[in-house]
Amino acid sequence: MAAVEEAVQPAPGTGEDGGFDRRNTDWYIDKGVQGFVFLGGISAILFIIGIFVFIGKEGLGFVFETLDLTEFFTSEYWEPSDEDAPEYGILALIAGTASVTGLAMIVAIPFSLGAAVYIGEFATGKTREALKVLVELLAAIPSVVWGFIGLSIMNPLIIEIFDVPVGLTVLNAGIILGLMAAPIMTSIAEDALKAVPDRYREAAEAMGATRWQVIYKVVLPAAKNGLLGAVLLGVGRGFGETMAVLMATGHAVNIPTSVFDSVRALTATIAAELGETAVGSDHYGALFTIGIFLFIITFIINLLADLVVRGVRKG
Amino acid sequence: MFEVSALNQSNKRVEKLYRILFLTMVVLLVAPVLIILSTLIMKGGSVISFEFLFSNPTDGMTAGGILPALIGTIWLVSVALLVSVPLGVAAAIYLNEYAGDNWFTRIINLAIINLAGVPSIVHALFGVGAFVIFFGFGTSILAASLTLAIMTLPVVIVATRESLAAVPMAFREAMWNMGATRWQTIRRVVLPNAVSGILTGVILEVSRTTGETAPIMFTGAAFFLPFLPEGVFDQTMALSLHLFVVSTQVPGVPDALPYGVALVLVAMVLIMNSVSIAFRMYLRGKKKW
Rounded distance, CA A135 to CA A150, Å? Predict the structure, then answer.
């Protein structure tokens, strides 16, 4: 018995002499690092909660004390600086954002999905790599530059082509936003096509299907959730876009009846007015309330996109 | 037996038609952007000079250069990087090296997706509510950079995570077999093998941060400041906001000036992105496993 006990050496770090013990130090460092990276990991959650808390802190007081929620969502009059009876209705702003995003999607969906099909299924080798790089570079152009393009290139172009008095309209912002969203949607859609296993394509080709038949009958149905996810993310992007929409819509509170009307977007309203409001005023609270509304809407869109895309992985 | 049938021929025609159709879509997607870029170069190119880049704006921003905006952007991006890179790399290490495949990890992933998806103006509101007012930083470089850092955190996390995931599991297992702790493994083997991939992500983030406008409008960037910032509690000009200001807020700006500012901004962003992409391709070619 005694011999066996002697053979079992006490593990380093449990020695009773209390001397410096290397493994112990490393063990503590290891745990320390684990704690630190865990903090990094949960930081994203903390920030999301933080965003909601701090926007809520500035906006919710106004929502509960002053704001008439029915008026907020159904009135088309956004007149926060009216001294006698300021009115906070965001219906026209929602209409502005929705019309611009809608037109942007009409522009972006066919082109981005079409481009994704070409890059993912038709193009090969160097062409494919080059196109992917090009799309990635397009996605990098900052939104303020797009806004400037809407303002100084598209604006005169629209006035000239359609013979209208104002070129800063739903049409202008819709096209700009479409061009902005398309590269991102193309990348995500192409990822979705890539996620379809090659054996699906090989099986169809072995049956004598042409390339297009393979795409139309096999690849697109298999990738449809991923493609829907791409579209949803495009919508989310359009909804949240600020600078381009601020500069290209004309910034007039208006429910549009045609694409040649100027509108104003939810995001642009915050960007244009936050600088001139007093902290804590009703107007200030109303802008933060729009922020809460935007946060909730984009949260839902992102959640939906995530669920839809995850649907593919499971299936 | 393998003669070309009528069906084959019609299939081939249809195939070609679709190929052309989709190629047209790619061209239509890319062409407007190329036209726009060349317009920027044609109209803005004449403004760009050494003096334009390295002198102060004069005459109520209708003349002169963009130096304070350039320097301001460098300040904002640098301070943002100091926060987002360590935090983002830590988050990626946690997600790739420690986290299991469970509901908690899914929530973190969802939070990252949302952080990237929240509108930039909402990040701006957060920056105002949290950093400017609550933490009392005022409108300063610090407040603006923190807002930018949180907004672009997902870029660092996603890029770092990808390059960590590309390090083969066998490398880690070999270390663990030698009795190394997790951290020793990460520090000695995983990070050295992933560091260049992380760097491409960082370059990408610099590019993203450079172009952002809305988040800095109310948190620390000023329309016009005739002097350079001296510390993180100063306000500063920024190139992206400067483009907005000279193209919408200032009367009497000569036509070419905003084109010049836009060109500098686009060139900075595209060059950084190209470097990041080239670097990534180089690494992919070099990979030995």
Answer: 20
DSSP character at residue B139? S
The torsion defined by the Cα of B243, B247, B253 and B254, in degrees rounded to 10, comes to 90
Listed in sequence order, the residues at least 6 apart from A190 whose beta carbon sits closer than 8 Å to its beta carbon are: A116, A119, A120, A132
Measured torsion, CA atoms of residues A241, A245, A251, A257, in degrees rounded to the nearest 10: -100
Across the interface, whether the CB atoms of B126 and A211 are under 8 A apart is answered: no
Following DSSP, what letter does each residue of B185-251 receive, concatenated? HIIIIIHHHHHHHHHHHHHHHHHHHHH--HHHHTTTB-S--SS---STTS-B--HHHHHHIIIII-T
Cβ distance of A242 and B19 shorter than 8 Å: no
Which of B94, B248, B279 best probes binding to A when mutated, by most A CB atoms within 10 angstroms?
A: B94
Q: Please tell me the class of the B67-237 domain.
A: mainly alpha
Q: CA–CA separation, B245 vs A166, rounded Å?
A: 21
In this structure, chain B runs to a length of 289
What residues form DSSP beta bridges with A79? A87
The interface predicted TM-score of the complex, written ipTM, equals: 0.89
**Which residue is associated with the tokens 């460092």?**
A29
How many degrees, rounded to 5, is the angle at CA B276 between CA B84 and CA A36? 25
CB of A227 closer than 8 Å to CB of A217? no
C-alpha Rg value of chain B to the nearest Å: 24
Taking the C-alpha atoms of residue A251 and residue A236, their distance in angstroms, rounded to an integer, is 20
Q: Which amino acid is at A24?
A: N
- For B273, the closest chain A residue by CA position comes to A137
Sign of the dihedral defined by the CA atoms of residues A303, B155, B205, B47, in that order:
negative
CB contact under 8 A, A44 and B115: yes
Q: Among B172, B165, B163, which Cα is nearest to B198's?
A: B163
Burial class (CB in 10 A: 0-12, 13-18, 19+), A125: exposed
pLDDT band at B1 (very low <50, low <70, confident <90, very high): low
Q: Is B64 helix (H, G, I), strand (E, B) or coil?
A: strand
**Closest in A37, A210, A301 to B90, CB measured:** A37
B246 touches chain A (CB under 8 A): no
Global pTM reads: 0.88
For chain A (length 315 residues), average pLDDT per consecutive 10?
45 50 75 90 93 91 82 85 82 92 94 92 88 89 93 91 90 93 92 91 89 90 90 90 91 87 91 87 90 93 86 54
